[in-house]
Amino acid sequence: TPAKRLEAVEKLTAAGIPTAVMTAPLIPALNDHEVEALLQAAAEHGASEAGYVLLRLPLEIKDLFAAWLEAHLPDKASHVMNLLTSMHAGRAYRAAFGLRQTGRGPYADQLAQRFKLALRRNGLNRRRLRLRTDLFVPPPQPGDQMRLI
C-alpha cells in the first residue's frame, strides 16, 4: 500500500540509506493530478530524490489498456488516449530512448514542469545520488571456499 511504501522510505532514511521514489506510471487525466501530493509525502518521509515515467503502451498493451479504460472509465477513455497519443506524435507509444519515458508536446511539457516545480518545492533532487559499486560483494557461488576473515 502507499502507506507501507512511505513507511519503508522513512525507515531506510532513518537507517542512513539514501532513498528515491519513482512515480510511475503517470497517466494523463487519470492520476497525474496526484504528482504534487505524492512528492510532498515522499519528501516528508525522507526521500531525497524522485523521478517519473509516463505510461508506456507498447505492442498489445495499448489494446488491453484501451479496453480497460472503456470498461472502467468510459467517460474518460477517449480523453486519456487522446492525451497519450498527443505526447507520442499521434501514436500510443514511441520506443525511442528519451521519448518513451516522458513524451513530447504541450501536455508532456506541462507535466514535466509541474514535476520540476514540485521537486523544487519539496527539496528533492537537490543532490543527485551516485551509484556506489565499491560496496558490492558478490555472493558465494556453489563450490567456492569460505573466506575466514
SS-derived structural category: mainly alpha
The number of helical runs is: 5
Dominant shape: globular
Distance between the termini: 41 Å
Order of helices and strands: HEHEHHH
The number of strands is 2
Strand content: 5-15%
Q: Roughly what percent helix?
A: 40-55%
Low-pLDDT sequence parts: none
Give, in spatial order, the strands making up the sheet with the most strands: 1-2
Write down the overall mean pLDDT. 91
Largest sheet: 2 strands, parallel
| Radius of gyration based on Cα positions | 20 Å
Write the layout of secondary structure elements.
Blueprint (H helix, E strand, L loop, with lengths): L1 H13 L5 E7 L8 H10 L4 E6 L6 H12 L4 H10 L19 H16 L28
Parallel strand pairs: 1-2
Give an overview in words.
This protein is mostly helical. 41% of the residues lie in helices and 9% in strands. It is built from 5 helices and 2 strands, in the order αβαβααα. It has helices at residues 2-14, 35-44, 61-72, 77-86, 106-121; strands spanning 20-26, 49-54. A two-stranded parallel sheet has the order 1-2. α2 packs parallel to α5 (106-121). The longest helix has 16 residues, at 106-121. 18% of the residues are buried.
